[in-house]
Amino acid sequence: MATTKLKNYLNRNEVEYRLIPHPRAFTAQEIAANSHITGHEIAKTVIVKIDGALAMAVLPASEVIDLEQFAALLGATLVELAYESEFERFFNDCEVGAMPPFGNLFGMKVFVDSELALDEQIAFSAGNHAELIQLNYTDFEELVQPIMLEFGVCA
Questions:
Q1: Count of beta carbons in the 10 Å neighbourhood of residue 152
Q2: Is 112 within the bounds of a domain?
Q3: What is the DSSP string of 87-102?
Q4: By the 8 A CB rule, do 26 and 150 touch?
């Protein structure tokens, strides 16, 4: 079931969204295949450390993060992938690896790859490995106010 925190936030802000169940899957590409939504429209949330501070990097499932480019864009000394043990405590109502890209609900900055803004809709893990939430990208942007950059490259 989608996280209560996220559903309450969307409902409180009167955002229309669709909950999409799918067979249990653990990678963004598997989720895209199982839910019949393109990997370009599915957003995956990657937790990174930017000079030691945790943040969310959100990009299409079909892409990977270019960490060097990301660091250069931010003027950071070091950007690296965070270990689950470093961030799981922030997401106590989510399954590990299924964090929704709403860093504002979890005390993290959110950086979004500009490719996601090209589609009208965005879909992402609902806090578990068996459901997606799909909503208008403009609603996501309004609620999360992510910092938009170009840091994804084709996988």
A1: 24
A2: yes
A3: HGGGGTTS-TT---S-
A4: no
User: Could you tell me the CATH number of the domain that includes residue 53?
Assistant: 3.90.960.10
Rounded-to-integer distance, Cα 102 and Cα 43, Å: 11
In the Cβ-directed half-sphere of 145, how many Cα atoms lie within 13 Å? Answer: 3
- Residue range of the domain that includes 140: 4-13+39-152
- 8 A C-beta contact, residue 78 and residue 51: yes
Provide Rg for the chain, Cα atoms.
14
Number of Cβ within a 10 Å radius of residue 78: 10
Residue 60 belongs to a domain: yes
In a domain, residue 51? The reply is: yes
- The pTM (predicted TM-score) of the whole model is 0.90
Q: Which helix (H) or strand (E) holds 16?
A: none
- The one-letter amino acid code at 56 reads M
pLDDT tens by residue, 64-105: 999 999 999 999 999 999 999 999 898 888 888 889 999 999
Number of domains in the chain: 1
Evaluate whether residue 131 is within a structural domain: yes
